[in-house]
Amino acid sequence: MGMHRRFVSSALFFSFFLASIFAPLYAAEINASPEVTLLREEAGGKLYQVANQKMLVMEGTPEEMGFQHGLLLAKEIRHIMKEGYTNKALWDRGYSKEYVAAQSERMEKFFPESVREELRGMVKGLQAAGDDGISYEDLRLGITQAEILHFPPDGGPACSNFACWGKWTTDGRLLHGRNLDWNIKGDAQDDHTILVWRPKGGIPFMMVGWAGGVGSVTGMNSRGITLGEMTLPSSDVTFDGLPLFLQMRLCLEQCATLEEAVQFFQKCHRTTGWNFIIGDSKIPDARALETDAKYCTVFAPMDPKESDATGHWGMVDAVRRTNHPVGMEQLLRLAAAFGHEFGLEISSEADIETAKPLLMTQDSWQRYDWISREIDRQPGAMDVAQAAAILGSGPVQAGNTLHSCVFDPKNKSIYVANAGNNPPVPAWKLPYVLFDLSPWFD
């Protein structure tokens, strides 16, 4: 890379940065007193309307919870599987049904039997609701599609996560902000559902998801564990592993501590590249994970692996991630595999140093940098409103945010904004609705 190109890249980055830090934060609307209405109660499950969002509470064995899900959300499951998102995300983009079924089958080999029981229960619930047209394989696709959509002809989306506590929040409690930047033109928001599971003899947990899903990409459990993911480009990928939706769901269902959650991801059969932020309100503390099929690198606050050598830095009482590796080892592997796409030949740490001005102009680096500086700018000021404001401001705001949320696990609460439709509106522009989970988490 020539000196002129490095100078221009650096100048563009710092011009953008200076403009961002002086711009006011977006004033997110928060509905902290939503109207809650019980819509229907059947077979032990309960379906609620909470402001403009639905919440399904399931209870019992895996089969019983699946049956409740299928029975109470039959209309929404049919829409997402047969009429809305699945058609637009897969078939309209050129994926063949044979290819998709084959990859889903490969991932199903890693499902625990309890998940299969829940899917079979959902089919029975749909049939009890009068819908015989949704198969087990349709529902299986609902929890394997994230991996499939991260390969051509589609490509991975972008997301942002941060968790902070201690010196940054108003009372020291952990807060975790998360944007899911996916696709708001595929109608997934129409079947958005807050899903709450109360497994017999297990840990109650919730996920921000969609009708028909037995997992998702955003969640929290009654033990104060919070979890959000982001796509991480990687050359070490496979379909022979546990799909993302189930990695996250099973972690929440099984793990009561931060240490257990980290160990879950270290030991599970992973698929493609994902970054994770895991919080634990009990301590409070959090970790950032950079994972793919082969590697799982764990970062604590003030981690020495998060260094200026790659354009990053550790923070006390905070972790944050976007869509790139922060650690030198994983960044080197990524750059060696894909650097040629940017005209770069990278094989050493010195090459990363040379490329750093260009790397820091990339959207993912800008979001990481901006989140870090916004947290750092106001010690002791972070509350739910401030966290939501960060999600809708600077380079973090995006036009394709499917849902935005702020976890408040100490108070057993989550604030969720869901994208609008007709016309599509990114989630962070719409009200964050408080879901008080105390009745189901106590």
Structure description:
The structure is a single chain. By secondary structure, the chain is of the alpha+beta class. It has two domains: 3-31 and 155-441, Penicillin V Acylase, Chain A (4-Layer Sandwich), CATH 3.60.60.10; 36-148. It has helices at residues 3-21, 62-72, 74-83, 85-89, 97-108, 113-128, 136-142, 145-148, 244-254, 258-267, 328-338, 349-359, 363-377, 384-391, 438-441; strands at residues 30-31, 36-42, 45-50, 53-60, 158-164, 175-181, 192-199, 205-210, 218-221, 225-231, 274-280, 285-291, 296-299, 318-321, 401-408, 413-418, 432-436. Strands 2-3-4-7-8-9-10-11-12-13 form a ten-stranded mixed sheet, covered by helices on one side. A seven-stranded mixed sheet has the order 1-17-16-15-6-5-14, with helices on one face. α1 crosses α13 (363-377) and α2 packs parallel to α6. The radius of gyration is 21 Å and the shape is globular. The relative contact order is 0.15.
Strand order of the largest sheet: 2-3-4-7-8-9-10-11-12-13
Portion in helices: 25-40%
How many domains is the backbone divided into? 2
Major sheet attributes: 10 strands, mixed
Low-confidence stretches: 1-16
Quick recap:
The chain is α+β, with helices and mostly antiparallel strands. The protein has helices at 3-21, 62-72, 74-83, 85-89, 97-108, 113-128, 136-142, 145-148, 244-254, 258-267, 328-338, 349-359, 363-377, 384-391, 438-441; strands spanning 30-31, 36-42, 45-50, 53-60, 158-164, 175-181, 192-199, 205-210, 218-221, 225-231, 274-280, 285-291, 296-299, 318-321, 401-408, 413-418, 432-436.
